[in-house]
Amino acid sequence: MKQLRKAVLPVAGLGTRFLPATKAIAKEMLPVVDKPLIQYSIEEARAAGIEQFCLVTGRGKTALIEHFDIAFELEATLRERNKKEALASLKQAAAVPGTILSVRQQEPHGLGHAIWCARAFIGDDPFAILLPDDLVLAETPCMKQLAEAYEQTRGNIVAVSEVPREHTNRYGILKIGRDDGRLVEVKGLVEKPAPEQAPSNLSIIGRYVLMPEVIDHLAQMERGSGGEVQLTDGMARLIGVQPFHGLRFEGRRFDCGDKLGFLEAQIAFALNRPDMAPGVRGFLKKYGV
Ligand code: G1P
Predict the structure, then answer these.
(1) How high is the pLDDT of residue 99?
(2) Structural domain boundaries of the chain?
(3) C-alpha of residue 75 to centroid of ligand 1, in Å
C-alpha cells in the first residue's frame, strides 16, 4: 500500500457568495479569527503526514501562493521591533521549500475538472483532497482520521455526515451498504439529488482520500449535475472496482462558503482558543447569548 503524501486543494472558485468582499481577494484568503481558510486546510493535511500540496488556482489567486512564501522584509522589520509572536505566526505560515505547487484551472468546468487539472502532480499515487470552504473543528484533525481509515481499508474514503433531508440537493450523497456506525460501505454516489430521490441523507463533506484511477474517469469530461464535470460522478465509477468507504468523522464541520456558516465558524474557533474565549464569551453576553 502506498503512503498518503499528496493533497490537492481546489481554489479556483469565484467566491460569488461573498461578493463584494471577494472582488479583489481570493475567498480562501478570508480569515477565521486570524488565519486564512487555506492555511487551516494545509495545516490539517500536514497533521495527517501529507508533505506535498497542489493548489488548483485561477486568475486573481496569486495571494494564495504569496501567503506560503517567506516575507523577507516583513520578517526583518518584525525582528528589529522584537515582535516575537508575530514572527512566529509568519514562520508557521511559510511552506517547506518546494512543497507547494500550483496549476491553473483556466475555465470553471466543475470540481471534477479542477481535480483532473492536477493529474501530473497526482501521478500514480493516492491523494487527499481538501475543500478549504469546509472547516472542521476536531480533536484529531479530520484528514488524520481519514488517513488512518485509509490505512485500514486501503481504498477510497470520503468524510461524511448526516444532513437534513431537505438539504440533500446541496451535497454529494451516499447509497449505503454495510455500516458499523463509523465506517460505511459506499454502494453508490449521487451529486446533489432532490430530497425525494436521495438514496440517504449521508452527505460528503470536503475531505477525500482517493486512488489515482479516478483521474481516468474524470478525463472522460462527462457533464453531470449543473452541467459540470463532477468529482462525485468520477468517484462513482470506482465503486465495485476498488474499496470505497465513507467515514463518519468526529468533529464539527462549518460551511464557510455560506455567510452564516462562516460567522458560526468565527465564533466556534474563537471560543476554542484560550487567548480569545473569555473575551468572546464576554461580548456574547452583551447580545443576550
Ligand atoms: C462539492 C461536491 C459535493 C460535496 C460538497 C462538500 O460541492 O461536489 O459532492 O458534498 O462539495 O462541501 P460544492 O459545495 O462545490 O457545490
Answers:
(1) 96
(2) 6-257
(3) 38
Binding-site residues, ligand 1, Cβ < 6 A: 111, 131, 134, 171-172, 191, 203-206, 231-232
Distance 9 CA to ligand 1 centre (A): 13
* Residue in 111, 161, 200, 253 to alter for ligand 1 test, most ligand atoms within 8 A of Cβ: 111
Q: What distances in angstroms separate CA 286 from CA 110, 263, 282, one per listed residue?
A: 43, 17, 7
Q: Which CATH architecture best describes the domain 6-257? A: Alpha-Beta Complex (3.90)
pTM confidence score: 0.96
Tell me the Ramachandran region of residue 288: left when phi exceeds 0, alpha when psi lies from -120 to 50, beta otherwise. left
* Residue 289 pLDDT: 78
Ligand 1 centroid to 99 CA: how many Å? 26
- Ligand 1 atom index nearest CA of 226: 16
Mean pLDDT by 10 residues, the chain (289 residues): 96 91 93 97 98 95 93 94 94 91 95 98 98 97 98 97 96 97 97 97 98 98 96 98 98 95 97 95 90
Sole residue written with cell 433531508? 165
Strand-strand pairing, 134-137 and 252-255: antiparallel
DSSP 8-state secondary structure symbol assigned to residue 64: H
Residue 288's pLDDT is what?
83
Beta-bridge mates of residue 263: none
